[in-house]
Predict the structure.
Amino acid sequence: MPAVFEGAGSAPAWQATRPLAIIVVNWNGLDVLADCFASLGDAQYPQLRVIMVDNGSTDDSVAWTRAHHPEVEIVKTGENLRWAGGNNVGLRLLQKESFRGHILLLNNDTIVPQGSLSRLVRALEEDPAAWVATPRICYAADPARAWYDGGLVGSWSGWVRHDGIRQLTGKLDPGQRYTDYATGCAMLLGPGVLEKVGELDEGFFFYGEDTDYSLRVTALGGRLLHVPLSLVLHKVSASLKGDSPRKAWLRTRSHIHLLRKHWPARAWPVLLLTQLAFLSGHTVWNLWHGRLASAMALWQGAADELCGRKYT
């Protein structure tokens, strides 16, 4: 039965007219795949195609998926290409096949409630200015609280953050609106966007790839549409467990890389001050919580990126 989205009054129900391909990058994610694939199986979206790009997992992810979800296409990379590289493998596959539908980049540690895919696709199709759409994302362990309700990018400050994070969803605006960046946790690309914008930048080792892609979309004239009535639940930090020095180091490196790529030289006098304030504030926060190693990793990440040191 085709997926429908009930309209107001006697208006006809909406029906999907294009196929939807979902790319799920996986690396040793056996413990989260069951919930993710089960939710996609219950999505009731017509012409739904799920592609798992496995980044050289050493657990039983591939064998388990073949046994329990034979409908999922599996592409094995043989090595850990990380988020951007893994997604690019899936995007290249779709390009090679001349796929003309919508493409959703989805984290493997997510759960997609029934109806959310239809709401997200419908919103994108009905807004000709929008090239990308993103849902409201809530904590899987606390679904009433938002993890992402739009993304904010300071044009002068360079600060990048989630809107509505940790707030109760009942207090947040349910209306659709444009946003500064779409999170890669669940990013829907409209038909033709890949040809216009290109692949993800694999120069971002980890973090920042989604913000980079969003800024590239807006630079080309596209808009990013946030759709709060479409919901995704996220098991936050399933891949990089909680707060850690490694996570702090990666975030800082990626952020500096993003600033150097997208902010012109004339903006750097202000950026220098705002980033020093940002790093100082996070340093104090980490020290207050007894995380000396994470506090030091923030500054080490910035220094390593500015000096062009190789990732280890």
